[in-house]
Amino acid sequence: MYAGGVLKQVDGLTYDRLSYFVRANYIKPKKIKRGSLYYNDFSEEDIKLIKLAWDLISKHDLRTRAAFKMAREEAKDPQLTLNLRIPPKNSD
Question: 75 Cβ partners below 8 Å, 6+ apart?
């Protein structure tokens, strides 16, 4: 998926910020050549990582490096997240 599609899926993310993530190597999308230009092709895993990191950056005011580190850990093992919902009690 190209950058425009990513921006439609992630609320509040700007093209400049997405470009920064790529330039700083937080995200490494595939490059696709069209004519003489190269375009970033973001995978579903890239988009998931961007969504998780952007949520941490925008809502929890985390720095970019820490947000992507936490997002990568979350993507590897989703069971490590803190889930504060209490399951309903069984009335057996």
Answer: 45, 48, 49, 52
